[in-house]
Design brief:
Layout (H helix, E strand, L loop, with lengths): L2 H23 L2 H26 L5 H25 L2 H23 L11
Helix pairs in contact: 1-2, 1-4, 2-3, 3-4
């Protein structure tokens, strides 16, 4: 599976979660954090998609995705440990940890597999 197939929905999920946090609790920090992280992930996913279309790998995009998801894992994991609240801290930490593992795997295996078929 290609990284952009998961990254773009992951970014949209973070934006949506930040928006829901703002609507429910009035948390501007939640909205800003979700929007910034989500938009950066969507941008990285888009860069990776465009590189894939040109039959190249975008190592910058995968590294950016890894750094953002690892940071979210740490921040939201710490918040979960302090509050013991599954929503949103535990959920975001769990999803981000899975995504970090996926990105590390992509880096370790050389990125997206480029098909050698000609059209």
């Amino acid at each position: 599976m290609h990284d952009f197939c998961f990254t773009i929905p992951y970014g949209m999920l973070l934006i949506g979660g930040g928006f829901i946090g703002y609507m429910k609790k009035g948390s501007i920090t939640s909205f800003a954090g979700g929007a910034v992280a989500g938009l950066l992930l969507i941008l990285a996913g888009y860069l990776s998609l465009k590189a894939f279309e040109m039959k190249k790998n975008s190592s910058i995009a995968v590294v950016l995705q890894t750094v953002i998801s690892a940071a979210l894992t740490l921040v939201m994991g710490q918040r979960y440990l302090l509050t013991q609240k599954v929503m949103p801290a535990g959920l975001v930490a769990g999803i981000s940890a899975l995504m970090t593992c996926f990105y590390v795997y992509k880096i370790a295996t050389g990125g997206n597999k480029i098909s050698s078929k000609t059209e």
